[in-house]
Amino acid sequence: xxxxxxxxxxxxxxxxxxxxxxxxxxxxxxxxxxxxxxxxxxxxxxxxxxxxxxxxxxxxxxxxxxxxxxxxxxxxxx
Length: 78
Prior knowledge:
Elements: H1 2-22, H2 30-33, H3 46-76
Helix pairs in contact: 1-3
């Protein structure tokens, strides 16, 4: 059980990092370093941004659940 949670945690962490970097930048921050400053048709779509927000939120919930689960297993030895 612990190994499965650890694997899910690593995958969720990687996906969450990718989804955060894919968000459209509001200014000249890190996203403009990766070409986020370039205007394209897909990046301006509100549907794409909404879906990306949802996917990021799901990854955050999975990540937090894995952290809590691993801490409970460590604390109580379930």
